[in-house]
Amino acid sequence: MTNPYIKTVKHPAALALAALAMPLALHAQTTDEKLPEVRVEGRATSDFQVRSSASDKFTAPLLDTPKSVTVVPAAVIAQSGATSLTDALRTVPGITIGAGEGGNPVGDNLFIRGYNAQTDTYVDGIRDTGSASREIFALEQVEVVKGPNSAYGGRSSAGGGVNLVSKTAKAENFNNATVGLGSAKYRRVTADLNRTIGDNAAVRLNVMGHDAHVAGRNEINGDRWGIAPTVTFGLTGPTKVALSYYHMESSELPDTGIPFNNPFSTGPNVAKNGNGTPIDVARDTFYGLVNRDFRDTQTDIGTVDVKHDFGNGLTFRNVMRYGRNTNDYVWTQPDDSKGNVLLYGTVWRRANTRVTETESLANTSSLTGTREFGGIKHSFTAGLEFGREETDRSSYIFTPGTNNPLTKTFTCPTSGIETLYNCAPLVNPNANDPWEYTRSVSPARTNVQTNTRSAYLFDTLEFSPQWLLNLGVRWDDFRSVLDVPQYTLGGATPTPAQHAEVNSTFANYQAGLVYKPSVNSSVYVSYGTSSTPPGNDGGDGSDGLTTVIRNLKPQDSKNFELGTKWEVLARRLSVSAALFKSEMNNARVTAPDGTTQNVGKKSVKGVELGVSGNITPNWLVFGGYTWLDGRLDDNGYVNTAASGAPAQWEPSPYNGNVFPTTPKNSASLWTAYTVLPGVTVGGGVNYVSKVYANINNTKYAPGYTRFDAMASYEVNKNVTLQLNVQNLTDKLYFDKVSSPHYAGVAPGRSAMLTASFKF
Fold first, then answer.
1. DSSP string, 219-246
2. Among 201, 302, 664, 748, which residue has the fewest nearby CB atoms (within 10 Å)?
3. Which domain range does residue 706 map to?
4. Is residue 718 part of a domain?
5. What is the DSSP letter of 42?
6. Motif TonB C-terminal box: which ranges (predicted)?
7. Contact between 656 and 633 (Cβ < 8 Å)
């Protein structure tokens, strides 16, 4: 029988995408007689398949949302053995984890589609400010939105955003707990307890304790603990009030990574040139100092969420949140910028330090509903958001200092006690060198206050069962103020005070036309924009406000996307494909006169493929593939004059180079198969191609393929045992690259046995 929903598709690219997926749809035999046209909201039968976002700003199911969205469900997080946000995001291709540096804090430094998305992490739709390393013990799922994110979140990058969906109290009683033991001194316990209170309220408590070393990196270790209680009133009434609190503390010895080979040397040192990859030293080489380095963090989030259903298709919601993040560390960067690695075979133990506290207060109010006007069905959300963020940032100073006392500089012709252990040998450094010091907080303090006001409207217009139009607009008023008081270090001349302000208003849009060949499929074309103003990081990141950039306009990005989504095999399996191109035509670069201006250009072209759900009732899959071609089309100008001569600005020699932190190819697949009742085996594979660490494209982390394995056994209805082996082949690879000085070393092979209890 001919499907009456299948019309002529005039756009040849749309036709090509639809043709790719059509055989799967036909194989699934999804016809109108078998599947009535209904909107299916919420979870599918598969634990790997999620059909709708938890965000109110998505006004259609994911199948009919004209945007690339990947949802990592709780089942994938649990089966893959993830214990942090970065672990969970390993299953999403197109995301790179960046390394910390002097101006870039240690934490979850995310790059999505090549763009820095460090500030684009949200908890239940509200921006999570401040640098942090986030846990997953209190999360229901992780949602990754690809492409410009400003229509959803306001100021943001061009690459996308990550929304963490928290566990909330439910109208049922359950008790879940896990106990895990493993190699590298791994120990982890969690509990998830939910209780109803009468007929109309419930309380839920999540707790976590974690302690582990890093496999293959002998000194690196960390412990953390967290608690997340929630209580919900009005479960069965029109008004629901949810109160929640999240607290997490961590303490760790942060990793230093491995410095890059230097490919620049000429003349008598040319024989010492490397090829730009990390130095070839043993995996466990650690350049830090055990009795100096540390990292302590604390996160507190309190939320009041009120929702009222008017009963006529309209729902009002107001969410108020207070948050506080602290990030306090001394972290050794194996600095290669002074020529020590090349000339002397030594490393300067550069002490990167940070003492930061970020507080935030946010309130968002929204009205969500459905209405029909002029024969067109509208599913809409309109809202207002207000936010205030304040970051106080300082650093540590040491007595004695961290220079080499023999040279009075950072150069290290020798190493050892005569350098006060501030210089270390490149090979076999001793992490337990008896480095002695007095540490105090520097009087150089930076305060940044950021205030935002926003209004937004999203609407999905359904003209017919086959044609939908998704529209969104958001207006933002962004104001950020930087203050650095005058201070004095030792007996030096007082440093003058600094003050900078940015006041910016900007609007962003998204529009997507969706054609549905059948009820279980969609083909779409979409357009979206994004704005990144000066001071985008709110005072705690790599995109800070300065006196140099305070008067610049926001960097504006636009994205064009053509995609298709299908639910096949009796709607058990979701598959998707998308072609996209994003452009930033006013990137901040050095102009011909040597000033910083909005005159640069960047672009990224790419392909996204995704799959999630059941191939058979016993076989689950979750994964995807991303191809990215990111280019610095116009990187501005560089000074080519000799030292001491008048500046001579020439076009950047890096024009046309590849984005740093942007692998051309990345893919991931997690799969699990129930071989016998109660017995499941599974595994994962991750592939990432070469990733450049600098715009010069001379330093890079090589590509890699990593394998993981899992087996679980249901002892009885109350107890399940799960064994995870991570990095099965003990592959040496580098998983954090954004600094041109070093690359982060990924963990080696490790094994974890987890007992899960239901009682």
1. EEEEEEEEEEEEEEE-SSSSEEEEEEEE
2. 302
3. 69-758
4. yes
5. S
6. 742-759
7. yes
517, 563 Cβ separation under 8 angstroms: no
DSSP string, 341-353: HHHHSEEEEEEEE
pLDDT for 397-436, tens place per residue? 999 899 999 999 999 999 999 999 999 999 999 999 998 8
Residues 202 and 196: beta-carbon distance below 8 Å: yes
Residue type at position 702: P
Q: Which helix (H) or strand (E) holds 110?
A: strand 109-112
Domain tally, the chain: 1
- Burial code (b: 16+ CB inside 10 Å, e: under 16) for 376-385 equals eebbbbebeb
Task: Establish if 35 belongs to a structural domain.
Answer: no
Strands in 139-146's sheet, in edge-to-edge order, are 69-73, 139-146, 160-166, 121-123, 126-127
Q: Which residues does 612 contact at the CB level (< 8 Å), separation at least 6?
A: 46, 48, 49, 50, 71, 73, 573, 574, 621, 622, 623
Helix, coil or strand: residue 400: coil
User: 637-639 and 649-651: which strand pairing?
Assistant: antiparallel
Largest CA distance in the chain: 88
d(CA 107, CA 660): 18
Count the alpha carbons within 13 Å of 525 in the hemisphere toward its beta carbon. 7
Reported as a single tens digit per residue, the pLDDT across 65-94 is 999 999 999 999 999 999 999 999 999 999
Strands (E), 114-216: 115-116, 121-123, 126-127, 139-146, 160-166, 174-182, 186-197, 201-214
Asked, for residue 53, whether it belongs to a domain, the answer is no
Q: What is the pLDDT of residues 627-681, one digit of tens each?
A: 999 999 999 999 999 888 999 999 999 999 999 999 999 999 999 999 999 999 9
Let me know if residue 518 belongs to a domain: yes
Q: How far apart are CA 345 and CA 334, in angstroms?
A: 12
Cβ-proximal residues to 270 (8 Å cutoff; 6+ apart), any chain: none
Helices (H), 570-707: none
Instruction: Give pLDDT tens digits for 511-547.
Output: 999 999 999 999 999 999 999 999 988 888 778 888 8
Count the Cβ atoms, other than its own, within 10 Å of residue 410: 18
Query: Residue 710: which residues within 8 A CB-CB, separation 6 or more?
Result: 79, 80, 81, 672, 680, 681, 682, 683, 684, 722, 723, 724, 725
**Whole-angstrom Cα distance, residue 104 to residue 331?**
12
Q: Give residue-wise pLDDT tens across range 474-507.
A: 999 999 999 999 887 776 788 889 999 999 999 9
Model pTM score: 0.91
Per-residue pLDDT tens for 373-403? 989 999 999 999 999 999 999 999 999 899 9
Integer angstrom CA distances of residue 596 from 103, 331, 547, 548, 592: 18, 31, 11, 7, 9
